[in-house]
Amino acid sequence: MPASNTKTILLIELLDSGQPYDAAEVVKRFDAIVGEHGGNHINAVGKKIVCTLGDPNIAAEAAIAMMRCDYSGKDPARQIARMCICQLAAGMDAKEAHTQAVSAAVRELVKAAAGQIVTTQETAANLSSKHEVKFGTPDGKTGVRVFEIVPPPLPKAEEATRLASVADRTGKKVRLRWRQAQANMEQAQANKEMVLYGEHPLITFGREDANDIVSDSSMASRRHGRLEFRKGGIFLIDESTNGTFVFPETGPKFKVQRGEHYLPPRGYFCLGEEVNADNPVAIHFVTVFSAS
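The chain above was modelled as a monomer; its predicted structure follows.
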């Protein structure tokens, strides 16, 4: 079942792990990761933090990134947090749905062990196949059953450049690679790449030849929009008449019109019209982390 566009709660609890970490520093890093994924930190009570994100898949990416982020004095053998993801129910008052989701997340969170990312059964059903969900008994919680999101293995340390989620983009540069059909190449797919960093943060796209990414779509504006590197992530800013349609590899499609949205790690987008992935005007993209 595909994830809906309803918002998702991410509940985080910082734990007393015996590790002398700076909670304020960790919260600051968590906030940055949530922001990079287009979410908001909306409340903090004691060591519990409530955030909202666009859908369960984005929330899972953010949670995994937080579990893996660095901070002063980090000890990989001692996990300092546990988390729960719960999607808001559709068809009810927004405030009531939010309250119910937080309550459900609290109930599931107490079942989790340190370092676990758990979810409700309903939310697990809306996660894409990219996220492995294990139903079982967490360590030290005999008799308690939980749905746990299992983070994918980390890439090999010797890989200097790798495909990465937003959370991995902690280096100085982000490479954006894209491919699109070129009429003068008999529809062959041309691969291109640009590096985005502090001094070169923008890529423009549209129908005009002066753009970095030029589209042949009749629905595209001459200066349709731009991609902007910010806070270690890439945002799509639309300035067009007909909007930009984005199809992430995982998660629901969405439209940006006269606004901005976090660009997923990979997928494709099209200017002014919805098209299939194999359509010549579809612009396929992937973001790649580079340490230098």
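Residues 1-5, 155-172, 183-189 have pLDDT under 50 and may be disordered.
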